[in-house]
Amino acid sequence: MSAAFSLEEAVPVLARTPLVLRTLLDGLPDPWISATEGEGTWSPFDVIGHLIHGERTDWIPRAEHILREGESVPFAPFDRFAMFEASRGRTLAELLDTFAELRAANLRRLGTLVTSSTDLGRRGRHPELGRVTLGQHLSTWVAHDLSHISQIVRVMARRYTAAVGPWREYLPLLGRA
Amino acid sequence: MSAAFSLEEAVPVLARTPLVLRTLLDGLPDPWISATEGEGTWSPFDVIGHLIHGERTDWIPRAEHILREGESVPFAPFDRFAMFEASRGRTLAELLDTFAELRAANLRRLGTLVTSSTDLGRRGRHPELGRVTLGQHLSTWVAHDLSHISQIVRVMARRYTAAVGPWREYLPLLGRA
Questions:
Q1: How many CB atoms lie within 10 A of CB A27?
Q2: C-alpha angle A3/A63/A106, rounded to 5°?
Q3: What is the residue-wise DSSP string for B95-123?
Q4: How confident is the model at residue B165 (pLDDT cuts 50, 70, 90)?
Q5: Which pLDDT belongs to residue B117?
Q6: Which residues in chain A are closer than 8 Å to B144, comparing Cβ atoms?
Q7: Alpha-carbon distance B70 to B74, whole Å?
Q8: Which site among B21, B24, B41 would you substitute to test the A interface, given the most A Cβ atoms closer than 10 Å to its Cβ?
């Protein structure tokens, strides 16, 4: 059920994501890591690159932007495709390390940046969505992590959409036949 | 993209699930653990109980049933509600321990039970779905794990459906407004 954002509840989730993804993916046979849902969709490997790009350009940079600029200057748009170039030639293990380092540093930065719950009402301007608050932005950080964990396990599960045979009917994650 | 089931690829996924769930959930503030999507839906705590019940009554018992009975005797139906009683009074940490122990034992048993890929074509009879194969059953074990990881992160993310404000539009996991 719906809840208000709180730093005390959110930070433990954000802190766990890198190790959750490492535990889920590191050392798995490559077909799980490079699987996609078809042309133009992302593999687990791609998703880790996307999360890295978010650590570099979205979550803390936009939080700083809100606190510095308020609504006067919209955020720079987020590049949803930057990771294809940035991840090229790197191993999954390297990407997982990078993500973990960036996330840890960003949570340390968050701790100095947002020191009171009144900061959560500070406003910024999203280039497409318009007025947003810092609390909404930080809530989105959490929901975005969880969404991409969900995406990764969905992509993996769908490798077995045909293999499960008639059980597909009981597994909505695999999509309707 | 769709793939054939293979033990070599499936076992590493099955083996990781208990630690993935422990990493994701153990020690989180309770509102994440007890969250549901409303009346009659399951919390992360409930899901771990359901996975335990599957280890006890579904995956290995039904694999043994297929190898012993073939199509002559249908499986006993799976109880989707057994965990509400079985989990009562237990802590999440206890459930995570139990799940990890049962899963490890079941994967050891799987290694002695299914020794060749020709076993994967052995047939059984599901009480509702009819004829199934051992390979389909084991594929379902994997997809079922991944489905419930997906469910847990969805339930968690939806705590912030309102809190993300206008970003909901970019987060299909939260459901349409």
A1: 11
A2: 90
A3: HHHHHHHHHHHHHHHHHHH--SGGGGG-E
A4: very high
A5: 87
A6: 171
A7: 9
A8: B24
